[in-house]
Each structure stands twice: as structure tokens, then as C-alpha cells.
Amino acid sequence: MTKLQTEPGMPGKTKTKTVPTLQDKYLKKPTTYKKPLTKKKFKVETYAVENQGERIVLYADSGLGKTTLVSLIEGVVFIDLYGGSDKIKHPVTGKPLSYIPGIETFQDVRDALQSPEIFEDYRTVCIDTVTRLEQIAEPWIFANILASKGRRVKHLKEYGWNEGYYHLYNAMRLILQDCDNLIHLGKNVILIAQSSPTKVANAGGEDFLKDAPRLYDGKPSNVAQVVEWADHVFRIGYLNLSVEEKKASGTTERAVYTYPEVHFIAKSRTISSEFPVIRFESPQDDSIWKFLFGDK
Description:
The chain has seven helices and 13 strands. With 296 residues, it is of the alpha/beta class. It has one domain (55-293): Rossmann fold. A hairpin with an 8-residue loop joins β1 and β2 (15-19). It is globular. The protein starts with a strand and ends with a helix. 28% of the residues are buried.
């Protein structure tokens, strides 16, 4: 025990107060743990993922054919958050694309993802775009999460101490969890994103920029969260692009990059590194999906 003296400097009125120390509080009575009645048993198995879907992120600058490329997948349905997919026809058949009407808010997206019966006749679900989804997550956060002292806020920074961006990170994690439920039901999930340069901290020299999906990339980073979640991160870009004296030159031929370079993010867990670049020569070119899905 520790004795503290109060009211110093007042003769005859000195009081003492006994305060328990941390040792008194936590070590006076040793903690005991009850042994479980039954012991959990384990065994070794092999992964059975044949019936699971693929987690795919596809990103590029506007106009490079992200939605068109995804539309080439047989049995795909769009959650269209920009309202631009209605102007795109299937590049082979010329037919309109399939989508879910009425989705406007972050909660609408969650409700749709949590309704697997909607997707019974479809193999692939595409959110177009996850960049827009992150933006509409903010009003949902403001409506559902109070700041300190029960305050309502109108900006993430008003939560204070970077707390708002943790709320944004957690909101996007809810979306990924909803997507995982569809993955386990055998559905592929594609998150389309706009492209944006992000700064990379370089412990061995100067920081540098690289292209990545356009999401919040502070702390905590939604770019990192989504990239880590995905089985595949594909980037559409131009082939043979070179820059001299701040002027870009090359061809307008497009390609899908499946493996990273210093200046952009990409990855694939199943496509061989022998194929880091797959051509996307025309709107009808579905080479990337043949590599990924084969005859599925």
C-alpha cells in the first residue's frame, strides 16, 4: 500500500489516504484459469477451393475499358454506382449489360451483397466502382457513428485523432466481408477502381510514386486493405509507354498487367509470372479471362 499526504502546509490538519498500488491490485490474488472440459482436436487437410470464387481488383484510368473488359465475362451482373454502365453494350453481342437497379447508398450495396438469391443466375458480381463506394461510405459513417460526447459530424476529420479514417477503413472491411460470403458461395467478385498515383515510403532512399487503385492511402490504408484481400489485382495500361523530357510517347495498344513493376501495383495468385502482361487489343479481347478462368 502507498500512503499519500493531503492538505500539505496546514499544521494539525494533515490527512493520509491509503491508495492500493498496481501490485496490490493485480498480484494480491493469483489469477487462475479453468482447464476446458474437452480438448479441441485438429487434423491436416488439403485446401478445397474448387467451388470458391475469385477476388479480383481491376483498375485503370478512365476510358481504358474497365467495364467493357469485365462485361466479356459470361454471367456477370453489375452494381453500378456511377451510372455509366448503362451506356455500354456487350462488345460481342451488342446487348445491354445486366445490373441491379435502385442501388444508391452504401447500405444499399451491403443489402444487395447480403442477398445471395439475387445472384443465383450469375457467376460474377462486379462493383463499379469501389472508388465511388468509398466516397458514399462517408455519409453512412456520419449517420451511424457518433463522435465523442455524442456529436454528429459532417467530415471524417471532425472525429479527431485520425479516428474518422479508421471508421472509413472499418466500413470498407464490412464490404469485403460481404463479398467474402459470396466468394464462399462460388461467386467471383470484381471491384473496379479508378487509378491514382500513391506515394511509397522508401527507407533506402527517396520516396516515389506508383499507380494504385484510387482509395484512401493514409493510415490506415484502404489501398493496402483491398490489395491484400484480392487474389488478383489487374491494371490496364498502354504497351511500350515511355517518357522523355516529361513527354509521353508510345502506342495506344492496351494490355492487362498481372504482375507489379516499380511504378504500379499488380498481382495474381494463379496466373504464372511468365505472363506479366496480357494483351487487350480490342474491346472483344477476353484473353485475361481465358488465362484466369480457363474453360470455367
